[in-house]
Write a structure and sequence with these properties.
The protein is mainly α. It contains 27 helices and 7 strands. Helix 6 crosses helix 7 and helix 19 crosses helix 27.
Length: 671
């Protein structure tokens, strides 16, 4: 029977324990030096405004580091990592509690608090130890393709395992030597004490003392090793999460062509990245989630987002180590070519699947486009088929070899409609409720003109007051910007903004997510502040308010999420509600949908490029869509519509599904 409050002797059988604070000095110095060295590497990069809205940034760290939200999306490795993290965090807290009582003279480690802390440490320590074993099993026995094992990975797991195991052995030795009346709150410690039961107390005390100092040495070794190893992410990941991009996900940085002191554009050296982009490379843990979600990588292209970031890291370290030498000796490795293959840069669809899946918020797309900018604007080095695309954008203001004067010719087809009407030009009908931004695909591509006609008819039927720019509308510039031709993009953007502001446009609706993203998130960089909505959003509201009467046509439908509508602008539910209204049933979801949707392969300017490596991304996605057993594949993007229709044709399916836009589906239901 026990009496008095629950507690135990701190530093049992350890004399001169205060020496640990002296022995800790060297590891702390090495830790500080290592972190300072990494900081100086990041400072090689340029400025980046990542401050402000501190509470929002703090919430990100709480959710992503503390609660491991993104980590847990991938359940098996996610739970493993979470248990290691939470276990080590709990043990660190327990160590602090012990130190506060033993060395600060604050008597807190007793009573219910002692019992609670003892149980928490035992449970979380055991889970952490088990998770380390599972992590090692996964890495070295299961060996998933996304993990590239290095010696550092083994060292990291080994030091965690030995540190955790030795802690439990120490607890077992203590309980075996001095039976603990509160042992029920140390169940794992009691289990570890069983092999030592019955041994002489003096022997147990000797083993305990020797192992205790060895345990401390191991902990100090880990401390010193941390900034020079994979364990660096323990510090850098939360910082990287804190400084994540808070603005629109789809807004790329703007280059200043008016600054005459700038002699080069784009990124060919790591010093041309920002400090945040360089810190990204140290936050990366090589977990491979980005790679497992990259359509280019999964289809057999040269791109691996993980390898790209690690290439940047290797070049950052080389540049820092050889600073002052690199400028004199041009024989060192190059960022583009040696560290990051050119073909990898051109394989990217800028779909942001990598960024969406990254637990530490590494930003891959901006790096990719930065290097593309250098190749295009400084080296004139890009896939040959883009020469025609750029020329068409410069001369016809659209990517097709079609005259700009025919941009509004699609309106002629309304004359033969069942209910003929005219779509006015903004110059003829100023101050409409909405400007309909038709976009290049909706104006010139024969298949996508049908979507424009369906949308115009629906808006007319709902009584929406709208007009178009006609020949005054130019390509929004999305493809030019993401292909690295920033100068051409800015030329188009500035001309469009000038026209829109000249008419006093306030509200814009468009059927193209690429136009949506550019007008909404990137034109503000040029003074163009507009309220921009996607046609699926406007049509859904028209149905919901009864301005469009719908009779469901009940086909079995699957919906493909456009990357630029979904991951870039978080529009997921409105198109699905529209499909529900038009078809009478929720769409049958593909295995990869919503934020995890698989790209069609047309983003990042890839729609204008040949796909010669590996499998065709659009065929992969088309097969996934038809695998749902659907008769209709619905999307809400002109690029996706084109890519998926081609993908269905090339898939070799006996009964290919029909591909249509949400506006076309709704028009069927309304008619």
């Amino acid at each position: 029977m026990t009496t008095g409050p629950a507690t135990r002797q701190i530093y049992w059988d350890i004399d001169l324990h205060w020496l640990i604070y002296i022995f800790m000095l060297l590891p702390l110095v090495l830790l500080g030096y290592g972190m300072w060295r990494r900081y100086r590497m990041w400072r090689q990069g340029g400025p980046d405004q990542r401050f402000g809205d501190w509470w929002e940034r703090t919430k990100t760290v709480i959710w992503e580091s503390g609660l491991q939200r993104r980590v847990l999306r991938d359940l098996f490795p996610g739970v493993t990592h979470a248990f290691i993290f939470w276990g080590m965090l709990a043990l660190l807290g327990g160590t602090i509690v012990v130190g506060v009582q033993a060395d600060a003279g604050l008597r807190i480690y007793h009573g219910w608090f002692y019992l609670a802390v003892s149980l928490i440490l035992d449970v979380f320590g055991a889970l952490s130890l088990l998770a380390v074993v599972v992590a090692a099993f996964r890495r070295y026995i299961l060996r998933p393709a996304r993990l590239d094992n290095r010696p550092d990975d083994a060292y990291f797991l080994a030091i965690l395992f030995v540190t955790l195991l030795s802690g439990f052995v120490l607890e077992g030795l203590r309980i075996a030597a001095r039976p603990d009346p509160w042992g029920a709150y140390n169940p794992v410690g009691v289990a570890f004490s069983l092999p030592f039961s019955g041994r002489p107390e003096a022997t147990l005390e000797l083993w305990y003392a020797v192992l205790w100092w060895a345990h401390m040495a191991m902990a100090f070794t880990f401390m010193a090793y941390l900034p020079f190893s994979k364990a660096l992410h323990i510090f850098v990941a939360p910082v990287n999460q804190f400084f994540r991009r808070l603005g629109p996900a789809g807004a790329l940085s703007k280059l200043n062509f008016e600054d005459e002191t700038i002699e080069t554009f784009g990124v060919s050296e790591v010093t041309q990245f920002s400090w945040k982009q360089l810190m990204d490379s140290d936050a990366c843990t090589r977990c491979g989630r980005c790679q497992d979600n990259c359509p280019a990588h999964l289809s057999g292209k040269a791109l691996s987002p993980k390898s790209l970031v690690q290439g940047v890291k290797a070049q950052m370290e080389w540049t820092f180590t050889h600073r002052g030498v690199a400028s004199q000796d041009d024989t060192g490795p190059k960022l583009i070519g040696d560290r990051v293959p050119e073909e990898a840069l051109w394989a990217c669809t800028t779909c942001r699947a990598c960024e969406e899946s990254c637990p530490v918020f590494v930003e891959h797309v901006e790096k990719t486009v930065g290097m593309r900018r250098h190749l295009v604007m400084m080296e004139s080095q890009f896939p040959p088929e883009l020469q025609l695309t750029f020329k068409n954008l410069e001369t016809n203001f659209n990517p097709w070899a079609l005259g700009w004067a025919g941009r509004a010719d699609w309106r002629k087809e309304l004359a033969g409609a069942a209910e003929p009407f005219e779509v006015p030009l903004l110059s003829e009908h100023p101050n409409p409720e909405y400007l309909l931004w038709v976009g290049c695909s909706g104006s010139f591509d024969a298949r996508n003109r049908k979507v424009t006609l369906a949308l115009a008819k629906l808006l007319h039927r709902a009584g929406v007051d709208f007009a178009i720019l006609g020949t005054e509308e130019k390509c929004c510039g999305d493809s030019a910007r993401r292909l690295g031709n920033e100068y051409l993009y800015q030329t188009l953007a500035q001309e469009n903004v000038e026209v829109l502001k000249g008419y006093g446009v306030q509200r814009i609706v468009t059927a193209c997510p690429h136009c949506l993203n550019t007008l909404k998130n990137e034109y503000p960089q040029f003074g163009g502040e507009f309220e921009v909505v996607h046609h699926s959003q406007l049509l859904e509201s028209l149905v919901a308010t009864g301005r469009l009467k719908v009779a469901p046509i009940t086909p079995k439908v699957t919906y493909h999420d456009s990357c630029f509508l979904g991951r870039y602008n978080r529009v997921y539910e409105e198109p699905r509600r529209l499909v529900l209204a038009a078809s009478g049933a929720r769409p049958v979801e593909m295995p990869r949908h919503g934020a995890s949707a698989f790209c069609c392969g047309g983003g990042g300017g890839r729609v204008w490029m040949e796909e010669s490596q590996g499998q065709r991304i659009n065929v992969m996605r088309a097969k996934e869509a038809m695998g749902t057993g659907t008769s209709r594949v619905v999307t809400a993007c002109p690029f996706c519509l084109t890519m998926l229709e081609d993908g269905v044709k090339l898939s070799g399916a006996a009964t290919p599904a029909k591909v249509c836009d949400v506006a076309e589906l709704l028009q069927e239901a309304v008619q």
